[in-house]
Write a structure and sequence with these properties.
Blueprint lengths: L1 H28 L5 H33 L5 H28 L26
Helix pairs in contact: 1-2, 1-3, 2-3
């Protein structure tokens, strides 16, 4: 039971990180900000991101546990956390690129035309 709770907590933390990045990116670039887009991101995207992150964490953990059920102990202790971290990292990246750095939204020149903030690592495609 404790492992399931930890998977859910990791999903919630990844969801909060993804929501924070989605909310921070347009503010950093001053692109697509205003009452409408800000409320949309806050009240529609943020809950959807949190729910998706927790569901992804629990689903990935359940799949990993099911796959490694008959495996040796070392595999059962390493594979589920690795799959969980990989799935959540991909989810955070996908949420940022899909909701946070929206290309084509006019900005006052604080960020490049693709609206990827300067603090985003250049080695991670967005």
């Amino acid at each position: 039971m404790a492992a399931w709770a930890l998977a859910g907590i990791h999903g919630a933390l990844a969801g909060f990180l993804a929501a924070y990045l989605v909310l921070l990116a347009p503010v950093s670039c001053h692109a697509g900000t205003g009452p409408g887009p800000d409320l949309l991101r806050l009240f529609v995207h943020t809950p959807a991101i949190l729910i998706a992150a927790v569901a992804t964490a629990l689903g990935t953990f359940a799949l990993a546990v099911r796959i490694t059920l008959s495996a040796p102990l070392a595999v059962r202790l390493t594979v589920p956390p690795l799959l969980l971290c990989t799935a959540l990292a991909l989810l955070v990246w996908a949420d940022f690129t899909w909701f946070g750095a929206v290309a084509g939204v006019p900005n006052p020149g604080l960020c490049p035309a693709d609206n990827v903030p300067p603090w985003w690592p250049h080695w991670i495609p967005a």
